[in-house]
Each structure stands twice: as C-alpha cells, then as structure tokens.
Amino acid sequence: MSTRLRLLAPGILLSTACAWRRALTLVCTGAVALSLVACATEELATSEEDLTSASALERKASWQSYVYVAAGASDQAIRQEIQRQVKSAIGALRYPEVALQDRDSLSNLDPKGWKKLELAVLDQGKATGQRVWRVQYPYTDVAMVRAKSPKGLNLDSFLLFGDYTQRGPEINATCSDDPKTEANSLWFHFAPELAKCKAAIATEIAAINAAHKGLDLAKSVAKVEVERRYLPVRIKLEPVKAPPVLYPDYDRLWGFGTDRTKVVAYAFFGVDADERNPNDVSAVEHFRFLRTLRAKLPKLTVTQTEPMAMLLDYQVGGKKITATYDDLANWIVDNQGFPATVVSPADRDSLRKQVVERFAERTIVWSAPASVTLGSQTRSITVEVRTFWGYEDGSPEYRQKATWRYLEAFWHGDIFLYQGHSHFGHGPLEPTAYNGGNFPNRYQVMLINSCVSFNYYDVDFLKMHPGGSKNLDVVVNGLPAYWTKMGEASANYLASLIDGQNKSWIGLLQAMVVKPSWQPSGYDPMRAVNGELDNTFNAAKTPLKVEYK
Predict the structure, then answer these.
(1) Is 533 helix (H, G, I), strand (E, B) or coil?
(2) Is the entire prediction scored with pTM above 0.70?
(3) Collapsed DSSP state (helix, strand, coil) of residue 109
(4) What is the pLDDT of residues 430-454, one digit of tens each?
(5) Rounded distance between C-alpha atoms, residue 58 and residue 291, angstroms
C-alpha cells in the first residue's frame, strides 16, 4: 500500500475559532515563543522515499523514552502506559508545528524493543516496599514539519508522564492552553511552552535531582521520579527524499472504463454550536462554500432538496421576498445586501434565521451536465454536488443520522468532503465505525478538513478501502484547521478537482490556501494527501478536457 504524503503548508499558527470539540478562540500576538523547544541541526541519514513541497515536508520521527509500571506488569499494561505518554506528544508538538500521524501509537509498540529494569522505590531515602519496572521503549512515527525546518533536526520537548488524566486540575492550571478542557483531552492541549508550565517543569526536575543524590540508580529510584508529571524527550526528525509530481487519477474519477454516468461529490458541514444561529461560524462557512463553488462552477443549479424546500422564497413583515443564491450568501456571510424593505436589525435577523433554518438538516443537490474527453474518447456525464449542513454529533440521534449519511456518501460518492469538528477522531466519522464493505471497489478521493485530521483518519481509511491506496487518496490537516474561510478552502479544492484543469496534487493543495485577516500572506494547516504515490494519471501524457454545458 502506498501511504506517503504530499504536503503544502504556508503560514504560521494564528487563529480565530478552531474546529475542535468545542470552539476555541486563540489569540496570538506574533510568532510563537519556543524557548522550551531547543532545535539543533545535524546531518541525518535519509530514509526511504518520501515527499517534498514548497512549504512542508514529511519526516521520520523517532525518540527513546520510558515509563514506570508495577514490577511484573503485563505487556498490555505497559502498552497502555506508552500509548498514553506518546499521545501527549501531539499536543506538545503543535507549537513548533510538528504533526504526528499515529494518534494512539498502535503500530509502534513491539515488546521486543523494550528494556526493563526492576527498581526499588525510595521515599526520602527510605524503602517503601514498592518495586517498579522502568521500561525504556523506542518510538517511530511519520511526522510533518514546515518546509523552512532544517534538513536534519533534533527537537527537545516534553511528554506528559504517568496517568495524567488523574491529575487534570493540576495540569490544566499550569500546562494546558485550554484550562477548562476535560481530563481525557489533556494530551491535545498540553502546552509546555507556557510560562507557568516551564516553571512547574523546572521545579519538578530540581526536586527529582535532589532526591536522587546518593542513590544507586541501577537498583533504586526516588518516589518523586516515579510520580513525575513531565518528561524531557529529544525527538529526531529525519529527512526523506521527494517523489515526482503526481495527480489524482482524473481518468478514473471521471469514470472512463466504466458505465457510470455521474460524478458525485458529497460535502458535509458539521454545526459548530447552534444551527438556529445565523452567526454560527459553520453556517457562515457553509454559505461561503456555496458562494465560492458557484462562482467557479456557475453552471451548477439546484435540482433536488431532501426534504423538499423552497430555498429562495421568504417573508418578512408580511412581505414576500424572492432571493438569489448570491443574496443568501451576502446576508449570511457578509450580513449585508438586504432588500430595501428589510431595514431594521430585527427584520434582518429574522430573515437570516429563516435562511439558515431553510438550509439546516437538508441535503441540497447541485447538478450540471458536462462533456468529458480523454484522448479520442468523449462521454457525457452529470456532475452532482450534494451539500449538507447540520448536527453530526452531540446526541445519539445526531450521531446515528450522520453515520447513515456518511455510509451513503462512501458507497455512492466519488468525492467526499467533511468540514467541522474532529472530536479528537472519536466522532461519527471515526474509522473504527466502518469497514471495507462500506466502500465500492473503485477510485475515490476524501478530504477531511478538520483539526489535526492527519492524526485520526487517513491511514485507517486507506487500510480498509478495497484496493487500498490504489483506489483512495485522502487529504488531511496536520495542524489545527480554523473555521475562518474553511468553506472557501474546501470549495476551491472541489472546484479544482472537477473544473477540467487537471491540477497536480500540489496544485490542488495550493488552491486551498486562504488569506484570513490575521494571516494575509496565506494560511494552510499543513495539508497533506496520503495514498497518491501509486496514481498513474499524467496531465501532460494524457490530456483530459471537461466542458460544462
């Protein structure tokens, strides 16, 4: 299976609201201070084939660390300790903008690589009767870094130690960038660069060093070390060589070699907070998506709504208002362009609420006929974009309905787009809820435009899909994806896939770069495509033309 990545990620980590489990507002006054993260460059060996990009790179990440377990603990108990510790690296590495692929470290826990040392636990030099194993383990993973990073890089950072979920209030108060986060989410919000956290780490290290004075560390260990909260770690990030320029398999996407008469894209937007609120950022981005997509593909028209609705007819103050889709986008996205009869703030608010109510929890089918030519072959095909904005989690009912929608899209769709909360990978899009039988044995493309989706989705979907990476390419984000202009980014991506320009994967990712007010030079959350290395389409060798009618 070909599961390397192609990356693009200009910009730095700034933000408005991010699509995490809850909407967060992060304020940045400049470049992130990384005094805790000391980088030292050196020449490192180049590993197997990898990728390159103008602005982001893949690296092989590796480190040595250790955990403590009760002497005699099972391999499974040791694995759980290692998994919990490794998971906290995802949070710690967000600030130096390094993304790890394996959220739960499921593929790097071979006991053959562990080294165990049994130690007596001493408290202030006195025996406690407790004996532990210090288990040293090696860890490797696929990582993404900014393209400006040095060729060879050692990164000094910290991991959370022990069962930090039992120390939630303490760690939240000192080392979390969201002090209100739940204990089981500490791994994501761990922020060792915070001043309070630096001080807590320094105090802990001093206490451990003092407790170890005079001890035979080959036979004993201080209790304060066993119960430590934070562990220094040096992460080696090794470079790999880049593959050639690659493309989506456009010929297969357009159905050549099959009897299919449609190319179907499903675009889902999860609600951020309240679908009754026209200012909900997800509603704004849903309409920004529609506006951007229609501007690029103006032949798309609404051909079906499920359930049925009149999307352009409204009433305010007893007066009928007939709108255009551009009007709706102006009202929701820009809060302007209202009819002359809609003047008061109350009336405008009423109109905007009617619009979002009309679009919420409804599949809207946008269609356009097209003619597609590949070499000497020409075929007629219908392009169909099925959009949906609504709740996809928050209750068993919402979750179940979202799962049904995704199952439909997996089976009938050629292009799948999701925009919204990642739920740390445990929402209704969690790969463990699906299997290979939910997908057809044909080429498909997925975009999961949510926070750090690189940690959660691509590898699992590639493994389960019939044909593996030969039949699936997955686009994911290595860093937090912010709601602002998310709809524009996704629309640019979808339009570029089906506009007939046959952009390479690099070109598609470049099309997704947006310029919010807080990052006028362009922001992209280190997007990557996985599964593309075995694609065969070449735009220069096999011209493909699309004409919308």
Answers:
(1) coil
(2) yes
(3) coil
(4) 999 999 999 999 999 999 999 888 8
(5) 34
